[in-house]
Write a structure and sequence with these properties.
five-stranded antiparallel beta sheet; alpha+beta; disordered N terminus; Glutamine Phosphoribosylpyrophosphate, subunit 1, domain 1; 281 residues; 22% strand
Length: 281
């Protein structure tokens, strides 16, 4: 699908014909080879070695939701990148955190951003948060063939539901199966340890500040037990990406804010290496 290069300056008819509000449907009809799910991996022996993103965590609080991720990407037993970005805004009121094959995951996020922008331009209104979660589910399902070859993408989706007035979190499996999570969720190689940390520390009445601290605590615990998850790197000044989504929209914490939370946690863990304790009763 190429633009008309003649002197008339007109776009091809495909761009001017009314159709679906889905950008993926548009590509399927006019340039299917550009969809990730239409590509195939050449026959290989053994596992495909590609950089993988690891741990993503999300926590809701009254008035919004926090989505955060560590900064490490691994390839086998090697650290492929120390400062990868894994959390991206999907639109004004939602965000995606990626785990799995990093290259495919970033491409999927970019396509998802275009999908939401295309819908808003065609329909003149934003897709509901439920609709956004369903669209992402379809995109993950279209990548199933690649996932079966070891190139899986398993994101965590979170956003502020303007209709319900609260933050919501959606998790997925490699087949595109979607589940709405209550309170908190995690995905990636360190998700088991991060979820355990959040399970003990989460409360329904968290403030925004407490929620951002909680996700960094959870990522710290994940890095403590999972070698593929990177903890705060004070020497290189690499800290987790923490984002907050409220009725005011998407906001990413500045480096100073993220480092402040991380440094405070490290300072307290000098006295209590295993982190804060939850009450027994």
């Amino acid at each position: 699908m190429e633009a008309n290069t003649r002197d008339t300056g007109r776009l091809p008819a495909a761009f001017l014909t009314p159709g679906s509000s889905s950008f993926m449907d548009f590509l399927s009809g006019h340039a299917p080879d550009m969809l990730p799910g239409k590509r195939s991996v050449p026959p290989l022996q053994g596992a495909v070695e590609a950089p993988h993103g690891t741990t993503i965590v999300g926590v809701t609080f009254p008035g919004g939701v926090v989505l955060a991720g560590d900064r490490r990407a691994t390839m086998g037993n090697m650290i492929a990148q120390r400062d990868i970005e894994k959390v991206f805004p999907a639109d004004e009121y939602s965000a995606v955190g990626i785990a799995g094959t990093a290259g495919l995951a970033v491409e999927m996020v970019k396509l998802f951003q275009l999908e939401l922008e295309h819908f808003e331009k065609v329909e003149g209104a934003q897709l509901s948060l439920e609709g956004k979660a369903n669209r992402l589910s379809t995109m993950i399902r279209s990548n199933l063939a690649m996932a079966m070859q070891g190139l899986a993408v398993v994101p965590l989706f979170a956003g502020y539901d303007v209709d319900r007035g609260k933050g919501r979190i959606f998790s997925y499996d490699v087949t595109g199966g979607r589940s709405e999570e209550t309170g908190f969720s995690s995905t990636g190689s360190g998700s088991v340890f991060a979820r355990s940390a959040m399970k003990k520390l989460y409360r329904d009445d968290l403030t925004e500040e407490q929620a951002t601290t909680l996700v960094v605590q959870a990522l710290y615990d994940a890095a403590d037990d999972d070698s593929a998850t990177g903890g705060p790197d004070v020497a290189r000044k690499i800290y987790p990406i923490v984002t907050v989504i409220t009725e005011d929209g998407f906001r990413r914490l500045t480096d100073d804010e993220s480092s402040g939370i991380a440094r405070s946690i490290i300072e307290h863990r000098l006295e209590r290496p295993d982190g804060p304790r939850a009450a027994l009763l």
